[in-house]
Amino acid sequence: MKVGIIGTGNMGSVLASSFIESSAISPSRLMVTNRTLSKAERLQNVYPKMKVGNNPEEVFRFAEIVFICVKPHEFYSLLSSNKSSISKHQLLVSITSPISCEQLEDLLDCNIARAIPSINNRALAGSSLVSFGKRCHADYKEKLLSLMSFISTPLVIDENITRISSDIASCGPAFIGYVLQCFINSAVDQTEITKAQATQLASDMIIGMGKLLEKDIYTLPTLIQKVCVKGGITGEGIKILSNEVDEVFDHVIKRTHEKYHEECDKVSQQFEVKEELK
């Protein structure tokens, strides 16, 4: 199986590195390209046997499965200008939430899927969110799920929970990382601990907490119960959090969904051009 990646920004690079380092595919069977070709070539410096295509057409002609890792507003132009290079026997995989499999199926005759990765996949951990187009062949469904299982726990989801699933699995590391960084900053501001010490303690804490969950030693609710001894210091901290943090993620989710719908509207305008030209 040959795989292509168009776009070597953050997520495209994560996919390329993770696929190679997990042995999901050999470097010689992976071809990447990027609008700024030097970015793809820098990735090739790390994995010398990986191929770099000079343009998207070269990647489409090389690969059986092609991941499209460009910004949502770049999809229509990229795909419509390369339609002649895309075979109906290929699988095209989008990694972005605002573009549905249905929209891509209306534009192209090939097999369509969506696989939204997470930065955690770089550590061969975390989830990936997978959806399939109506025409996607069963063999390709199996191949994509197998490929993603090398670097993640793939979860097949319906369209109606795409955004919230991505908020948790894909945006979540940034959200929780920001909260943890605020915890560190407050510790440094309010006490005599150094930033290096606080960062080390926080990092060790979050890694250990992840292992407790991974090994099913505790769930999140039971973990809180075990640490929050009745009448203890932790409980006083929880009281503050319950008063000041409970609604924060309501606001976060509301805004991410607003932005998502804004992006969907912009993308839809591009894809509707095709219908008007019929």
Helix content: 40-55%
Q: Could you tell me the radius of gyration in angstroms?
A: 22 Å
Under CATH, the homologous superfamily of the domain at 3-159 reads NAD(P)-binding Rossmann-like Domain
Largest sheet: 8 strands, mixed
Instruction: Give the SSE string.
Output: EHEHEHEHEHEEHEHHHHHH
**What is the SS-derived class?**
alpha/beta
Strand arrangement within the widest β-sheet reads 3-2-1-4-5-6-7-8
Q: Mind telling me the CATH class of the domain at 3-159?
A: Alpha Beta
Describe, in short, the structure shown.
The protein is built from 12 helices and 8 strands. With 278 residues, the protein is α/β, with parallel strands linked by helices.
Structure commentary:
- The protein is of the alpha/beta class.
- It has a domain at 3-159: 3-Layer(aba) Sandwich (Rossmann fold), CATH 3.40.50.720.
- It is built from 12 helices and 8 strands.
- It has helices spanning 10-21, 37-46, 56-62, 75-81, 101-107, 138-149, 162-169, 172-190, 195-214, 220-227, 233-244, 248-277; strands at 3-6, 30-33, 51-52, 65-68, 91-94, 111-116, 127-132, 153-156.
- It has an 8-stranded mixed β-sheet with strand order 3-2-1-4-5-6-7-8, with helices on both faces.
- Helix 8 (172-190) crosses helix 9.
- The chain is elongated and about 70 Å long.
- The model has no long low-confidence stretch (mean pLDDT 94).
